[in-house]
Automatic annotation (TrEMBL):
Protein name, as recorded: Stage III sporulation protein AC
Sorted UniProt keywords: Membrane, Transmembrane, Transmembrane helix
Gene name of this polypeptide: spoIIIAC
Entries under InterPro entries matching the protein: Spore_III_AC, Spore_III_AC/AD
Record-annotated membrane-spanning stretches: 6-23, 32-52
Superkingdom in the source lineage: Bacteria
Amino acid sequence: MDISLIFKIAAVGIIVSVVGQILKHSGREEQAFLTSLAGLILVLMWIVPYIYELFSTIQRLFEL
């Protein structure tokens, strides 16, 4: 896993939290929720290939 992925996830978390707070304080809770959901989906799309690689490595390990 690349260290830049961790920085990307941290950046998305910071941006989503700031935008979410701004939207909540302006009375737009629905948009704040959708922003959080979009950030979660984006991060999951980055993480899923690594999770798949982990499970396939574990499967190959126990096939012996």
